[in-house]
TrEMBL record:
Residues 56-300 form the Fatty acid desaturase domain. Signal peptide: none annotated. Pfam families: FA_desaturase. InterPro entries: FA_desaturase_dom (IPR005804), Fatty_acid_desaturase (IPR012171). This is Fatty acid desaturase. GO terms for cellular component: membrane. The chain crosses the membrane at residues 30-50, 56-75, 150-167, 188-206, 212-231.
């Protein structure tokens, strides 16, 4: 593995090259959020008040799901403090943006800002890192799962993207709720319960069929869109003992119009260097990274990254290998022999590695 540097090491070298306005909040980003909020309200009203053809309801559900996802991307931006700086307003706007995904701002900042960003791809401390072979060898159920045919696991893994964000969010709530001070726990519970209460109340108001098109199907679509990015952020990269974003993170590329709709969420390495900077300026950060460390920077089209996820397993061995342990196959990670355009496994002996 290459010599590792902290995100601060890179940031200190790029920051002087950035315009001063890049380090200030950009409240104009909220106009995009307002547009999505109006689209969501309009979609809810259309499905709720009219007896629409199922095909039209399906098309509206796609728009709603895409809007849910985009609001989540903006919520992520807001809760990093890059849109507004006042804490109460940041949390209020973040809560509204994350309402469709039912994720509270206090939990998100604890899980994502304070833990994932600080300990990215640390096998013990990053709550989003995938397991090592040593971990699954200690858990009978996981050992059984990873003995299933790889093609079956890959298919289930991709189908699970449609509910993975929601399920992982609930897991993070169970993990972190006890770490909040007792006086703050009621607020964290409220931030979880209120969104779900909204969606359950909507079910009783409009009925199960309309609710399916107004909320459940859009939620599945939003999960899939959000997780298509999140799944490619780090899962092809190695685990690292030092939080080096140029080694443990991947930027994906999408058409420009998609970046506009998704608030530049594709610029993930840049985000890990400057989480407190508006994504509006990430293209400039990317330019500087590629100028200064072109051999270390990882980027690829989102479609290629997803295809690479399909073709590689999600178990780490010796931090830099992705292994299918009970089939005896290993794949390198990015920067460690993985060629996403030509993925080929090598045989390894996993016996006596427990």
């Amino acid at each position: 593995m290459k010599e590792l540097h902290s995100f601060g090491w890179y940031a200190a070298r790029i920051a002087p090259l950035m315009p001063k306005k890049a380090f200030k909040p950009v409240p104009s980003r909220l106009w995009g959020g307002l547009a999505y909020l109006l689209i969501v309200i309009g979609g809810f009203l259309a499905i709720s008040l009219f007896e629409l053809h199922p095909l039209l309801s399906f098309l509206i559900a796609i728009v709603l799901g895409s809007s849910f996802a985009a609001m989540g991307f903006l919520g992520h931006e807001i809760l990093h403090g890059t849109v507004v700086r006042k804490a109460w307003l940041r949390d209020l706007l973040g809560a509204i943006a994350f309402w469709p995904l039912s994720t509270g701002p206090a939990l998100w900042r604890k899980w994502h800002n304070l833990t994932h960003h600080v300990h990215t791809q640390d096998e013990e401390k990053d709550p989003d890192a995938w397991p090592t072979f040593e971990k699954i060898a200690q858990k009978p159920f996981l050992k059984w799962v990873y003995k299933l045919p790889f093609s079956f696991r890959a298919s289930i893994g991709f189908l699970s993207l449609a509910f993975q964000f929601t399920m992982h969010g609930l897991k993070m709530f169970r993990l972190y709720i006890k770490e909040f001070k007792p006086a703050k726990r009621p607020a964290v519970w409220t931030q979880l319960i209120l969104p779900w209460a909204t969606w359950i109340m909507l079910l009783f108001i409009i009925g199960p069929v309309k609710w399916f098109f107004a909320f459940l199907l859009p939620l599945l679509i939003a999960n899939f869109i959000v997780m298509s990015y999140i799944a490619t952020n780090h899962r092809l990269n190695p685990l690292t003992p030092v939080n080096d974003p140029l080694v443990n993170s991947l930027t994906v590329t999408v058409p420009k119009w998609v970046d506009v709709l998704h608030f530049n969420f594709s610029y993930h390495t840049e985000h890990h260097l400057f989480p407190g900077m508006s994504p509006k300026y990430y293209p400039l950060v990317k330019k500087h990274i590629k100028s200064m460390w072109p051999e270390r920077y990882h980027e690829m089209p989102l479609t290629r990254a997803l295809a690479a996820l399909w073709k590689t397993p999600r178990v780490y061995f010796k931090q830099s290998d992705l292994v299918d342990p009970y089939a005896g196959k290993a794949f390198g990670s990015l920067g460690n022999g993985l060629d996403a355009a030509n993925i080929k496994p090598r045989k390894i002996n996993m016996e006596n590695k427990h």
